[in-house]
Specification:
Blueprint: E1 5-10, H1 12-29, E2 35-41, H2 45-55, E3 59-69, E4 75-83, E5 93-101, H3 105-115, E6 121-129, E7 142-146, E8 152-153, E9 169-172, H4 174-178
Parallel strand pairs: 2-3, 2-5, 5-6, 6-7
Antiparallel strand pairs: 1-9, 3-4, 8-9
Helix pairs in contact: 1-2
The structure holds 1-O-pyrophosphono-5-O-phosphono-alpha-D-ribofuranose.
The site of 1-O-pyrophosphono-5-O-phosphono-alpha-D-ribofuranose has 17 residues, from strand 3, strand 5 and helix 3.
Amino acid sequence: MHNDILRVLYTEEQLKTRVKEMAEQIRHDLKGQVILTVGVLRGAVMFYADLVRELDMPVHMNFMSVSSYGSSSVSSGAVRIQYDLEEDISGKNVLIIEDIVDSGLTLKYLTSTLKSRNPAMLKTCCLFDKPERRTVDFTPDYVGFEVPDVFIVGYGLDYAEKYRNLKYIGELKPDVYKSQ
Ligand code: PRP
């Protein structure tokens, strides 16, 4: 796996530090509330698990799965729910936890879908933001790192389902994804 990585963008330590800072900010902003967290499978799993443990406040743990990409690495523009929430969010404080916002299609769709279920609050938290790739207008409430438009993998992010379990974020060598 490591041989396919061109360079390390964020080490395990840097990720840990930033996740901690983000948790502190969220805890400060949402103090005194019970937060219904929504992790977006599967990319957000590592970030989600680390962030909720750093939050150190009452949270409910929920997950959704949506598909935004077709078989290629280019967004098809279509988003659909593959696995929905089991908890009723009406009147609750909801925090969506995502690994990355790219075109913005996934989060735009998710936020408008969840808003229609009448939560008391709806905020979005993304570890990575690639603003250069945006095709729809969307700004997350919390962002860990703004990243350039390169293919990143690790810490939950994949290429063809590989590399999700890397402890760091790496830039994938172009010949890995161009050869397929
Ligand atoms: C990735 C990522 C986000 C979405 C962001 O998910 O986890 O959910 O794409 O892209 P967008 O802003 O262009 O919509 P993916 O569909 O690759 O599934 P995964 O989470 O299972 O890796």
